[in-house]
Amino acid sequence: MDFKNTSDFVSGFWNLYVIVIVAVSIIGCAVFLWVQGGAKHKPGEVTGHVWDENLEEYSNPLPNWWRWMFYITVVFALVYLALYPGLGNMAGSFGWTARGQYETEMQAAEAQYGPKFNQFLKQDVMTVAANPEAREMGARLFQTYCAQCHGGDAGGQPSFPNLKDGDWLWGGTPERIKESITIGRLGVMTPKGTKPDMDAEQVKDVVHYVRSLSGLTADSVRVQRGQELFPLACAACHGADAKGMEAAGYPNLTDKIWLYSSREDSMIALVTKGTQNQMPGFGEFLGEAKVHLLTAYVWGLGGGAKPVAAQ
Description:
two-stranded antiparallel ribbon; Cytochrome Bc1 Complex, Chain D, domain 2; 4 strands; elongated; 311 residues; 3 domains; 52% helix
């Protein structure tokens, strides 16, 4: 482990702790072998230790070849610690670090594969999306960096959007998709279930009104009361018509698509407690060329909108 580049270990105590643990382990192993090598044994005699009435322990020494293998292991450990990091933040004579190894491999990979990614960077998203080789490369990137949240088929899961259905919180044009991948997104639903906003009954009323907008079962009396509450409680984000505001990431409440759940109890909990959901930005980590390829792949899944200039 490269302790020089591990920010969690900021105290000198941990450096000393690792050194002591490693040193005690190696020295203890060597001392144990030395003691065993000098111990007196009576081959053929039992020690008196018996298990299951039939298994007896004989007073036989370890075979020499076995004992010397352990000695070689101790010597190997000492040589290794002299060459490579292992004793706290001591780097070893080779100066090797895990971070250095990673950066070297990344540079080699960039030299080998960079030109391939960069050739697609020069093309517009729709052209890249139509290229079979680019789609295959984009699919591999997606499975590596995106499938954990959005699913292997990009169909999403609760709290993680479906990327194939044409419903976009932040916009489905190539420009907006690329922006989402590059800088990430932060979605916030403020809690409404406490005074001075709404009490528990008013939250239920609003929820039933929202359910009615998508054709879900709802109490007609609560729907009427909720319709009166909605403009004051929810319209600032979701719009007076409840169709949301795409530019700000506020969802459409009328399209029968639910990021979390359409169950009444889940909707009540969401309105009452609010929520916060974040997509991390990948721009700095992946670089412009890979983000461009991922954008083309996601846009080409079937739900992407036409570029702004082409509309």
